[in-house]
Specification:
Strand order of the largest sheet: 3-2-1-4-5-6-7
Largest sheet: 7 strands, parallel
Structural class: alpha/beta
Shape: globular
Strand content: 5-15%
Low-confidence stretches: 425-431
Oligomer: single chain
Distance between the termini: 42 Å
Mean pLDDT: 91
Number of helices: 19
Helix content: 40-55%
Number of strands: 14
Length: 431
């Protein structure tokens, strides 16, 4: 652990100038640095739960889990949600601050971790998906704080990397009391890395438990912008992917309104400039000053330059493209589109959601495009058969509804780790 601690300090020192440059150039925003260094007060969570969610996707999982936990925790039990990225912090603050304290997850540094655990003193820590931090786990174990990994997943790429350090990693895995994994394959992989089989459970994917998305706040402007055209949502697109999507969309005749939702906020302006460089007119979600004014020229692109509204925007779409899949970043989550009754097309790279994507492939609610040209062909076929596309959308919504329940199962398993909470609940906590 001493060597690991030294390497963590060196890694942070080496990364800091790079991160600062990227922040100053607008390439990526920094998270809440003072909080991550342990220089801000942490919430008191004694007798409650600390949930850690890295970014926007994990915040959604934390939201689903929190809804299930609240029905089981005693009234007044404190809950805190820590985040890593600036976008995740913004979404958590906007959507969950009424139910939980929002704060920054500490860097993997002794001082920051010690201060965070000393001040929070939770009865339980829940890490979402793949957050395995050896120092944090060691210090939590020293305080007899149980730690659980919920909605756990191990991608093929991560599994190959983790196997090289299995000897070191096994000690950290031994400090995790519960591995609530997304699938049987994920469960098998974490066991192969050294997790005790009796602590590993396949509870399903909490991302199916998302609540119904609210109405999109800019629905009326979006409707007028579409001017009767179908709406194609390209959700959570990655760097270098917007060019490929625009190529595919430009070849369509007639062309639908393209609702483009880039993955990171710091890329919004760059994507707007990319569209303008192609001679396309762009209506931005953030430009709402003329909300009541008529849109005289139907824009080519509606740029969703906001955080946390993509699920709502899908409700007005006929078809979705799942970002991060034409470029080799592992793909994004198609469940929000499916829940809105929208079938989807993705590129070849869906490794981050392999089990979900495989089920979508089998049901015909997710198509796969090899490249930009193939994407264009598949888009054209879908828009040429609106009734069949709508049928697949209805099937997608049914599929999501049938796969809910993982959050409830995870909440039950988590409370089993904390007898004190269960006893207080039995004495009159919330049902």
């Amino acid at each position: 652990m001493r060597l690991y601690r030294a390497l963590a300090v060196l890694a942070l020192a080496a990364y800091a100038p790079f991160a600062l440059v990227r922040s100053l150039t607008g390439a990526r925003r920094l998270g809440e640095l003072r909080g991550r260094l342990g220089r801000r007060p942490y919430p008191r969570l004694e007798g409650g739960v600390w949930i850690h969610a890295v970014s926007v996707g994990e915040v959604g999982v934390a939201r689903n889990l929190l809804r299930a936990l609240r029905h089981r925790l005693p009234d007044g039990s404190p809950v805190g949600i820590s985040v890593t990225t600036a976008a995740g912090r913004e979404l958590a603050a906007r959507t969950l601050s009424a139910e939980a304290a929002i704060f920054a997850f500490p860097f993997e540094l002794s001082g920051a971790v010690e201060r965070a655990l000393d001040q929070t003193r939770p009865s339980l820590v829940v890490l979402i998906e793949t957050e395995i931090w050896p120092l944090f786990l060691e210090r939590a174990a020293a305080r007899a704080i149980p730690v659980a990994l919920v909605n756990g997943r191990i991608s093929s790429r991560s599994f190959a990397r983790y196997r090289r350090i299995r000897g070191f990693l096994s000690g950290s895995l031994a400090r995790i009391a519960l591995f609530a994994m997304q699938s049987g394959e994920d469960a098998g992989r974490i066991e192969a890395l050294g997790a005790a089989p009796e602590r590993v459970r396949d509870l399903g994917n909490l991302k199916y438990d998302l609540p119904e998305a609210p109405a999109f706040p800019d629905t009326e402007r979006l409707r007028r912008a579409a001017s009767g055209r179908a709406v194609l949502v390209a959700g959570s697109t990655g760097e270098g992917e917007e060019e490929l999507v625009l190529d595919a969309w430009s070849a369509l005749a007639p062309r639908p309104l393209l609702l483009l939702a880039p993955r990171r906020p710091e890329r919004f302006d760059g994507v707007a400039r990319l569209c303008a460089s192609r001679g396309l007119t762009v209506l931005r979600r953030s430009s709402i000053t003329n909300h009541e004014s008529p849109i005289t020229n139907s824009p080519h692109v509606y740029l969703l330059d906001s955080i946390g509204e993509l699920a709502s925007a899908y409700r007005g779409a006929a078809l979705a493209f799942i970002g991060g899949s034409l470029v080799a970043t592992g793909g994004q989550n198609p469940i929000e589109a499916w829940a809105a009754g929208v079938p989807a097309i993705a590129g070849p790279h869906m490794e981050n959601f392999r089990e979900i994507a495989a089920r979508g492939d089998a049901l015909g609610i997710l198509e796969r495009a090899r490249d930009s040209a193939d994407l264009s062909r598949r888009l054209a076929a879908a828009f040429a058969s609106p009734e069949e596309t709508a049928r697949r959308g209805a099937e997608a919504a049914r599929f999501v509804a049938e796969n809910r329940g993982a959050a409830e199962r995870a909440a039950d398993a988590l409370l089993g780790l904390v007898p004190g909470l269960a006893q207080r609940q039995a004495r009159g906590g919330a049902p």
